[in-house]
Amino acid sequence: MNENQGDRTDGDGTGEPGTLRAGGDGIRGTAAGTAPVPLSVVDLVTVGQGRTASQALRTGVEIARLAELRGFHRYWVAEHHSMPGVASSSPAVLLAHIAAHTDRIRLGSGGVMLPNHAPLVIAEQFGTLEAMAPGRIDLGLGRAPGTDGATAAALRRSDRLNEGADDFPQQLSELIRFLDDDFPDGHPYARIHAVPGPVQATAPGGVQSAHRPPVWLLGSSGFSARLAGTLGLPFAFAHHFSARNTIPALDLYRSSFRPSAVLDAPYALIGVSALAADEEAEARRQVLTGALSMVRLRTGRPGLIPSPEEAAAYGFSPMEREFVDGWLADVIHGTADEVRTGLDDLAKRTGADELMITANAHGGEARLRSYELIADAYGLPGAA
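RESULT FIELD:
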């Protein structure tokens, strides 16, 4: 942890040396083993053909526990809707479950899609998570709906979808004020409090944790990069599906950055699609399932993650093959040594402060094996 991330306070808010002030702690990780930067996990909790959502959720717990054991810095889940192959539609619910099965690893959203929700609801949900797992919760926020337009309209009870995205800075400001319980006097929400939250420390006899979930901004273009920099917030970029925008977005974030009470210098992680297997051919066989799944999603046919056998037998059209080749070019896959080399090169090329790995494949066994192999390749702690 970087000691220059914010003002230091103790647990009862007296201002004596202790933990970093709310919002400043837990952002910067420490690289473990021979990894060039801290390594983390973002899990889509994928559901493969022939598998149930219950099995996918159990795999999510296994991945989180493995990540904790092997020294990964954090485990995040992402909000998606109306996608049969993704079981992470309710990040707060899922994170509460994961928190009950882990002890140390940071947990968070990568991310919650802010325009889909009332800011007060998110503040209450993540205040509850913080009370369940003090000092371990991250609140990553996205601007996109995490689904198609019709589903977004059903979520928001409105067909004015652009309005929600355009209001993102205002929604973000409102959410942060609910988290900090600091609406100014005279504001319509000045007497409204997100509970659990800071207001409990002001009640007679009240004691409240000094922590609150750090807010991250997520993005796949320049909008959130610039906003995160201007506000002095940590930034997470979706390299795994917007690789060509990665370096421009990170450059924009760094050039826009203004020091804040949260961070004194930029901190950016990137999401990376990476899968390691014992043999290169097996890694290729596994990542092809994710590529076929993306073909179907992009053509309006989202479904369960296909099996390796189905993906291998699928007859890709020339246009689909072009898409798949481009998609797989941005997926780091192969043996553990090949994946380590790819991750090292990516960290050096982008200057990312943290790599957040997603391993998309049909079965949980392949995904768990991938994280184990990557941990071994970097000599992370906790090996069997």
